[in-house]
């Protein structure tokens, strides 16, 4: 794994730079009263985050020799959904966060109305990007990417998971319920990030079983690592407030498993995620390295 | 026009019933912690509104002999976007409205977090509906519908228009700026509602010029009529608070033109809208009747 790990950092940096460039081009500030809307979208979208989802799309697309620029466009659309969800989740009525990625949250830097509209705009922008010919000249591929992204982000996916997450503070959720919550809230979008690379490579659904298994286990490992960082992390490194779940009495993997079993579970999920890639050779080393990274990261 | 007007009411009622039925089927309340999310979506989506946009899609689709059920599915997706925009626009940070369609707004009947997520969920649901095979077996049609809907609802369309509308309270907007604002805020979605019928009928873009002109003039007439209702309407009939724009000192067609010129302008736009349909025979009578209706309605 040492060689694969060594190549992870430059791959992450390259994807992050590509995504920033895409957002910079897509979000040119117009000279009209929409200026604060675009500035808010840029504030949220540019220059932050680990870009784990875009890297997943690019790394999977590489398995199937998809043109890198097409993969980057699709990855940007998926990241639009992730960023919009952060902007809305941070709102006072939701998680009420002041800091995100080391900067004030959008409603703090601008105002609530602008934050709501910036989120809504990034949401629509995701589908604009995917719908344009430049992303994929094949309408079947465009249509499938849009459908999968809509499913992953809607009431059966991310938005539904966030609703369950809000209820987790009051409910007495057990491990299966928390697992389902997280598979919807973060797992669905991680799943579409992985699968998008295969869709771009015209891999039929039955050829994506291994990648789906990888994404499912990776998503849960990612969430457990997030829970651990929430209690053990450094706020300055994380760039956001920590320890919020425990303070709110929210049911999480950590509150249900405890630190030691949560850490064991995350490690087991990474091993399982990597095992799902057994039919791939060294071309999947980036996906393998990323699986190890998600539980070893410090933010 | 008498015969056409006579047939408008049953056509509107039939479409309204079809849309309610679609929402009822799409939004079955799950037996899990997402229950309030679905209840909030149902509260917002079912049993209210004039369903002008769905009727536009169905009436245009009829021109091109599109299967009615396909038109209804597409119309439901477009109405999802309209409903989500109402839910978000009503939020305290935006227009802060307590009543909508004669019922409490979603954040009043539920809470703000649920209203934000219900809007986000309806937003994603629109693309889920359009992305499914059942809506259109042709992936090119599916992909074009999704792209046009994303453009109409994003920062260059509805969301951008709403941002300009918020700025209209503080800005000193002139008539061209208010016209552009309204073309984005309400015109873009009305445009896609009309054009969707033609897209389903596989009419190429160059064959949609008349319909686009019709939609543009209709959209502006619709907005001027809305402005007039805001000062002259009956709150009980409208089902929402009125007189808000004038109270906020917002630049509108009405504040810029005055009541008499605004009424003349709306009538002129309807005449123009109908003139754009000159290449169609009696099969476009429903669209003609609808153009007259939008300036004559009382809510």
From TrEMBL, chains A, B:
Check the record and name the InterPro entries matching this protein. Isoprenoid_synthase_dom_sf (IPR008949), Polyprenyl_synt (IPR000092), Polyprenyl_synt_CS (IPR033749), Prenyl_diphosphate_synthase (IPR053378)
Cite the CDD domains for this sequence. Trans_IPPS_HT
Q: Which UniProt keywords apply?
A: Isoprene biosynthesis, Magnesium, Metal-binding, Transferase
Known cofactor(s): Mg(2+)
Q: What family does the entry list? A: Belongs to the FPP/GGPP synthase family.
Record-linked PANTHER family: FARNESYL DIPHOSPHATE SYNTHASE
What protein is this chain from? Polyprenyl synthetase family protein
Instruction: Record the organism.
Output: Sphingomonas colocasiae
Higher taxonomy = Bacteria, Pseudomonadati, Pseudomonadota, Alphaproteobacteria, Sphingomonadales
């Amino acid at each position: 794994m040492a060689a694969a790990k060594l190549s992870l950092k430059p791959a992450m940096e390259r994807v992050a730079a590509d995504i920033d460039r895409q957002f910079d081009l897509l979000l040119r500030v117009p000279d009209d009263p929409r200026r604060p809307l675009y500035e808010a979208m840029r504030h949220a979208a540019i220059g932050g985050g680990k870009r784990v989802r875009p890297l997943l799309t690019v790394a999977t697309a590489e398995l199937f020799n998809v043109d890198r620029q097409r993969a980057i466009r699709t990855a940007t659309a998926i990241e639009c959904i992730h960023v919009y969800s952060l902007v809305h989740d941070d709102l006072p009525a939701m998680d009420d966060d002041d800091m995100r990625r080391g900067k004030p949250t959008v409603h703090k830097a601008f105002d609530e109305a602008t934050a709501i509209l910036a989120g809504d705009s990034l949401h629509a922008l995701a589908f604009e990007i995917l719908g344009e010919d430049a992303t994929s000249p094949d309408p079947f591929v465009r249509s499938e990417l849009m459908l999968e992204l809509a499913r992953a982000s809607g009431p059966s996916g991310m938005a539904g998971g966030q609703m369950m997450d809000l209820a987790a503070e009051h409910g007495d959720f057990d491990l299966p319920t928390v697992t389902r919550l997280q598979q919807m809230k973060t797992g669905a979008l991680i799943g579409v990030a992985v699968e998008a690379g295969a869709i771009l490579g015209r891999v039929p659904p039955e050829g994506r079983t291994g990648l789906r298994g990888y994404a499912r286990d990776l998503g849960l490992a990612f969430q457990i690592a997030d829970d651990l960082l929430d209690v053990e992390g450094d706020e300055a490194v994380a760039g956001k407030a920590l320890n919020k779940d425990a303070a709110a009495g929210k049911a999480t993997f950590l509150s249900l498993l405890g630190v030691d079993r949560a850490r064991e579970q995350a490690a087991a999920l990474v091993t399982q995620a990597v095992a799902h890639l057994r039919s791939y050779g060294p071309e999947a080393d980036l996906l393998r390295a990323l699986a190890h990274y998600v539980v070893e990261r410090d933010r």
